[in-house]
Each structure stands twice: as structure tokens, then as C-alpha cells.
Amino acid sequence: MSKSSIDKSDGSIGKLTIKEPYTKTRFLSKQARGVIDLFRAFTLYPPLVVSMAIMTASLVYNFQVNKISIAEDWWITVGQASFTITIVNAASNALNQATDVKADRISKPYRPIPKGIVRAEGAQSLAYLLYLFALLRAVTINVWFGIFIFLIMIFTVTYSLPPRMKKYLFINQIWIAIPRGMLGILASWSVFGDPFTPTPLIIGAIATTYLVGGMAAKDIVDAEADKKTGTRTMINTFGCKKTSLMVLPFIVFPFAFIPMFIDYGGLEPYLMPLTLLIIPGFFVAYLIYIGTESKTLENVQAWAIMYILYIVFAMAFSLLTIFRDILPWYSG
Questions:
Q1: Which of 104, 103, 153, 101 is nearest to 123 (CA)?
Q2: Which of 98, 182, 249, 316 could form a disulfide with 208 if both were Cys (CB 3.0 to 4.6 A apart)?
Q3: 10 Å Cβ neighbour count for 170?
Q4: Cβ count near 14 (within 10 Å)
Q5: Residues ≥6 apart with Cβ < 8 Å to 258
Q6: 121-145 residues labelled b (16+ CB within 10 A) or e (exposed)
Q7: How many CA atoms lie within 13 A of 153 on its CB side?
Q8: 3-class state of residue 118 by DSSP
Q9: Which residues of 58-69 are buried (b: 16+ CB within 10 A; e: fewer)?
Q10: Could you tell me the pTM of the whole model?
């Protein structure tokens, strides 16, 4: 008998993906696993990795350009700040599930609240506690970081609660792209540098524009449920094929405009390779076009690849910034 079959038969591991049934294990109860699933672990990787990448790039950039000193425990600051951003995202995920119960019973009945593992009121209370913890933690980093975290919280709360921007066509995608794009980038950069300089502002604008288009992917699975519960999205209004063509410019053009930003002095020439992300951008739009659902992830393949490309963008920007002095195309 293989190890995997033993693990499944004795219940020592239990569910590994959110779509699997809840089972009690020797380590976690059903309720504990339900709370973990409220946070939607896969969606926490992008804010964690992206924020760490941007913070590290900010540290190196400001050390090289503005000659700031680097503290020996800089990595602790990066860890604490990126963890704070991740906690805000976890709180917004829990709040979103607490307020989307009617839709989830239709399209995502495997989630912990529709399954009766976690109560909606408990999920909402947990979200508020996480928001409070994140805000109190953020203000200890610096003032601007605290302000940006507060603004992110405002966007994520009003996305799910009244005026519930989630239900408005077009606005819903913009409302979720701003905190995950511009505000997240500026918050990360502010840990070690001035967030109101051209580099973080333009990188944030690129990220936001990309996410405005890419976030259409998250609505494919929920198309029917959203329509029945009064939420208008591009997917349930125009369909996958038309939506993919409508969002294609938002996914591709931000990377195509990088040479223009460089020509006008907004970005430095060492960032030119980021233009290559146009290619996977077309692939994201194609996946939205076909709308294939994943058997393990709780959404479509386009949703997963969209997030992965965002991580690649942030990491590529960070690596190019950190090693720009040794890049053959950087003139200094």
C-alpha cells in the first residue's frame, strides 16, 4: 500500500485543497480547517511575495540612489510589513465569504460557511479582529505604511459591505485592483523609501491596470450565482469570450507602455525586460476566453495564472532593481 493511500485511509492529513470534503485529522479539527479555508491560502501568496519583492527593491534602490543606511535587521522589518499586508488580505477574504453566503451556496458549496463548518457571524468577527491587528501593526512600521494599510482596508471592506462595490459592473474590478495594485505597491515601497516618486507610482499604475483586466477571471465560476444574487460582472454580462477581448488591453498594454515610460524618464532603462511580460499576458486573456475551471483550485486556470504573472512581474522588477549595476544594458 502506498504512503498516499495510507494517509487518506487513516485521516492523518485530511483535505489538502479547499474542494475536498472536511475530515477530522489528528492535527486539526474540522472547525480549525474551516477557519484556515476562510483565508483562502492560495490568494495570500501574491500579497506576501509581491510585498516582500517590492520592499527589498525599495531598500536596495534607496541605498544606491539616495544613500540611505541599511539596518542590520532590515529583513525583520520586511517580514513584519509583508506579514501585515498578508493579514489584511486574509481579513478581506474572510469578510468576503461572510457576506457572500447566498452566492457561495450556489457556486461554491464546498466553502466552510455553506458547509456549516463556520458561522458567517464568526467569520465576520474574525475578519474585524484581523483588520484591527493589521492596522495596529502597520502604524509601528511607519506613518505612511499605516496610512496605506488603512486605505487598503477601506477598499476591501466597502467591496463586501455597503455600499458593496462588488455588485456594480466595472467598478467591482477597479475597486479590487486598486488596493492589490497601486496601494499595495506604494505601501511596500514606503517601508524604506518615498512612495511618491516616479518608480513606485508607475509600477503601481502598471500593476493596477493589469489587475483591472485580470481580475475578470475570478468571476467565471461565480457567473450564475452573481447574477442570481444581484451582482453584475463582465463575465455574467458579456460572457467569457467578449470579456477576454475587452480586458485584453488592460492585461497587455501596461507592459507594452514600459518603453514609453523609459523614454519619458519615468522609469530607468534597466527595467526594459519587463516588456516581455506582454507574452504571458496574452495567455492570461486566452485562458479567460476559454474559462476552464480547475479541479483542485477553487477557480479557473486563468485566475491562477493571472496571480502567478503578477508575482513574476514583482519579482522581475525586484531582481532587475537589485542587480541593475551588473546588467549589460544599464549605463548607470
A1: 101
A2: 182
A3: 13
A4: 19
A5: 206, 267, 271, 272, 274, 275
A6: ebbbebbeebbeebbebbeebeebb
A7: 22
A8: coil
A9: bbbbbeeeeeee
A10: 0.91
CA-CA distance, 198 to 291, in Å (whole number)?
36
- Return the DSSP state at 292: P
Placement of cell 534607496 in the chain: 62
Closest CA to 319 of 34, 57, 39, 17: 57
Rounded (10°) angle between helices 171-178 and 143-160: 150
CB 301 within 8 A of CB 287: yes
Ordered by where they begin, the domains of the chain are: 27-321 (1.10.600)
- pLDDT for 2 beyond 50: no
Give me the mean pLDDT over the 245-270 stretch.
Answer: 96
Which among 107, 7, 89, 79 has a CA at the least distance from the CA of 42? 89
User: If we measure between CA atoms, which residue out of 250, 254, 258 comes closest to residue 212?
Assistant: 250
- How far apart CA 181 and CA 211 sit, in angstroms, is 7
